[in-house]
Amino acid sequence: MHCHNCLSHINIPAGAKKIVLVGNPNVGKSVFFNAFTGMYVDVSNFPGTTVDISHGRYGGDVILDTPGIYGISSFNDEERVARDVVLAADLVVNVVDAVHLERDLFLTLQLVDTGLPVIVALNMMDEAKTRGIAVDADLLEHLLGVPVVPTVAVKGQGLDDLKARLPEARPGIVPPELQKELREMMRTVAASPEALLVLEGDEEVAGRHGLSAGGRREDFYQERRRRVNDIVGHVVREVTDGAGFAARLGRWMLRPLTGVPIFALILYAMYYIIGVLVAQDIVGFTEETLMQGLYEPAVRGFVGRFASEESVIGTILVGEFGLLTMTVTYILGLLLPLVVGFYLVLSVMEDSGYLPRLATLVDRLMNAIGLNGRAVIPMILGFGCVTMATITTRILGSQRERTIATAVLGLAIPCSAQLGVIAGMLAGLGPEYIAIYTGVIVLILGLVGKVLHSVLPGESTDLLIDLPPLRLPRGENVLKKTVTKSYAFLREAAPLFMLGALLITVLQVTGLLEVIQDGLAPLTNGLLKLPRETATVFIMGMIRRDFGAAGLEDMALGPAETLVSLTVITLFVPCIAALIVILKERGLKEGALIWLGSWLAAFAVGGIVAHILI
Amino acid sequence: MTLAQATRGQRIEVVAIPDPAVRAQAIRFGISAGERVECAEKLPAGPVIIAKGRQEIAVGRRLAESIEVRPA
Question: Which helix (H) or strand (E) holds A569?
């Protein structure tokens, strides 16, 4: 990202101060944000990222939230966004976790070094106490040179104090040597925070000033680390060793012997919440009763007044894949509940501290296909919606990993829309077919990952993550995250689903759809040994993957034929929206390759299975 | 020796982290050359978990093989 005026898309009234909340991940920052802003909050997306910034009013001023980060620089999108918001700040409220000062104060000192007015909220003081940690807040205030307010945000303690002391926020103590260097740098870079980042070797900020970043980041970091350790040595006293149940559970989640059963349990809970409650009960109501029962007839009736359903415009709007009928039903009736369900589960896993432990547990497996443990996040999301998961591959550390993850997602991960139908049909076939299906899909997933891993140039990044303490997630926080992420996804994906439906309708109206189906027929008939009509089902699968699978239910197929069709449908290109996202994220050439590759793989594997079984 | 060779429960001192990006990120987490840490957990052929005070960090095995340490 390279926008100098990064907050230009956020409406900030003249004369309002920009108060920015900054902290490490999971320090309870959003509780502070809510305490300051109350109900009126706006969320805006940072261009070119999946990062959303919440902002709201506090008196005549504006409060801006930032993503949880360990430092401000350019290591990832979150940091870049947080950095740019901090660079625009008039005042920084830094939330730190009293239990984790060694980690958190690194960011605090970096903020102090920017020369901006800072106030520190020393949060989770209650937890520090139960864990046997005593923190001397007064001494910390003295050593940092900025106000330090002890808080227990979730219980509302210390929040009034923080608000009252907000005007006391001031630039803290910057070591003399650094001050000298900053003064030097400020001859070319006027603002102190930017001068610091240029000194620290932040290439993007340096680039904005036409400078090249120096290679001294590490000297600064080392020196800062030394100061952090020194401060922590003075202000923190370990009264007792408070490693309790949470710490032990945290370890069990990591060790394969206990970690795998725990993961299995969590997966089952996830299946129950999303697969049963959401996919069946809630979607049954939203998709069938609300959308198809009430909404679609109404919109058909309305459009029918202006154009007949058989006309071209009628087909586009309210036909079989109509923009106003199928697409809206699909997005609101089916996708929305599922996406909310997945983000809800993911937010709980994230806020409880389980996600980094899961990433650690599966790291070894992911390494085999050139990914690291963090890739477990898009993989889990893929079972919800491949489109959503593909967007999430942005969190991965290198282009190489994003390519591998995208290809694997597009090829071998069946999304929830499809999974339900597939599971239902497989269940009717018996355990041996379920085993063959699962075996084939897992084999292909591993094989493709492995091949890409050895063929693609470059290196994948290694796992290096902080394992935060396990905590009970807070409902309010989880809900907020779920809403923000679901909204961001729909805003990004809804136009793609529209575009996909439009494309298919155009194919249908022009008769091209039939040409494609006829063209595919020899392939289905000869190679896959399936009836000609299955070609239609495969094409339908591109519009909505569950359509494809559901279409098979209406055909009289033998068990082996069903298995072949299901395998092909799973491996086949994901739905057209996912395809567009793949092209968008990976570029035309690579996206097209992934697309062609999955066609090839789907028919090749289907053909092999067909020739063995049928 | 490398971090990957440390045994569970062993106290070690970090000697060198070769990759600059990793080094910078590790400093933020509180782990840099000269730092004394504990090898808190080792997953079979998987990540090594190092602990310093209450701070725990998971390090992928390949990365652990590149980090130089010595017993402390």
Answer: helix A559-571
Is residue A196 included in any domain, yes or no?
yes
A54 in reach of chain B (CB within 8 A): no
**Spatial contact of A182 and A195, defined as CB atoms under 8 Å apart:** yes
Question: Which residues of B fall within a CB distance of 8 Å from A75?
Answer: 21, 24-25
A490 vs A101: which has the higher pLDDT:
A101
pLDDT (average), residues A560-566 = 89
Contact yes or no for A575/A387 (Cβ under 8 A):
yes
Residue with more model confidence, A211 or A214: A211
Q: Does B25 sit within 8 Å of A70, measured CB to CB?
A: yes
Q: What is the ipTM of this complex?
A: 0.96
Closest residue in chain B to residue A217, using alpha carbons only: B24
Is B28's CB within 8 Å of A103's CB?
A: yes
A225: buried, middle or exposed (CB in 10 Å: 19+, 13-18, 0-12)?
A: buried
Would residue A38 count as lying in a domain?
A: yes
Among the listed residues A80, A135, A75, A130, the one whose alpha carbon sits nearest the alpha carbon of residue A104:
A135
Domain hosting A172: range is: 18-238
| Contact assignment for A363 to B43 by CB distance below 8 Å | yes
B24 closest CB neighbour out of A107, A221, A467: A221
List the single residue in B20, B27, B41 with the smallest CB-CB distance to A225: B27
Side chain identity, residue A2: H
Q: Which domains does chain B have, with CATH numbers?
A: 3-71 (2.30.30.90)
Domain count, chain A: 1
pLDDT reading at B4 higher than 50 = yes
B44: nearest CB among A228, A256, A467: A256
Min Cα–Cα distance to chain A from B9, Å: 13
Per-residue confidence band for A193, with pLDDT thresholds at 50, 70 and 90: very high
At A577, the pLDDT band (50, 70, 90 cuts) reads: confident
CB of A106 within 8 Å of a chain B CB? The answer is: yes
List the CATH number of the domain containing A160.
3.40.50.300
- Give the pLDDT confidence score for residue A486 in this predicted structure: 87
**Torsion sign over Cα B63, B65, B69, B72:** positive
pTM of the model: 0.84
- In the prediction, which pLDDT does A2 show? 38
